[in-house]
Every structure is written in C-alpha cells, then in structure tokens.
What does this fold into?
Amino acid sequence: MDCIFCKIANKEIPSTVVYEDEKILIFEDLEPQAPVHLLIVPKKHIESLNDMTEEDIELFGHIMHKAAFIAKEKGLTKGYRVVNNCGVDGGQTVGHVHYHLLGGRELQWPPG
Ligand code: 5GP
Ligand code: ZN
It folds into this structure.
C-alpha cells in the first residue's frame, strides 16, 4: 500500500521517533507549526476518523492517553493541543488517521 505513514511506521521512511509501542508511533512533524509538533499515528492503517470502527475504540483511547503522557514528557506544563484533521474541509492531507500534538507556544483559537 502506498501510504506514507504506513511506510514511516514500518521504518521504510525515516522519521524522528519520540515514542513507539506495538500499537502506535509518535514522531516529529516534518514541517513543525509550533516548538513541539508531533504526529501520533496508529500502526493499523485507518484512512480517517470516519473509518474508525467500534473495534478501534480502545486504540483511540490509547492514542489520547499517550498524547497526554508525551505532552508531560515534553514539559508542556502550560498546555497543548491535540488535533485531528478529517477530510478535505478538515484539512487532512495524509490519508492515514493521525493526531497532531502541538505545544510550546500560545496557540490561537479558532484555527483557520
Ligand atoms: P494533515 O494535514 O493530514 O492533518 O497532517 C499531515 C502532516 O504530516 C503535516 O503536518 C505534514 O507536515 C506531515 N508530514 C507529511 N509528510 C511527512 C513525512 O514524510 N514525515 C513527517 N515526519 N511528517 C510528514
Ligand atoms: Zn497507512
């Protein structure tokens, strides 16, 4: 399958990994939009949040749990943002579901 995040998860494409377990990979975004900008990706190929099924509920809970764990590890004591872009209007550009973890500066609201 020609999926860039599957290739990153399989180490066919290099990335700067900050956390890995059997279910997920967390790595640095190539074009960081904040001092801390990480991508949290399930190793299972799921195209978007729309394609999540009931059997993935535990996996997505695991993603959120590790997002908070890594935010603490990165010292984001003043807060951070976890974002999923879904579909064209949501601004999704990679068709493998992922969450952005952004922090290290005061983030604006609402996003554009
Ligand atoms: P989306 O726009 O789909 O929500 O987010 C895709 C993100 O993946 C973007 O922030 C983009 O910078 C990042 N990205 C795209 N290709 C690569 C890559 O090959 N390596 C890494 N580390 N990040 C990537
Ligand atoms: Zn994939």
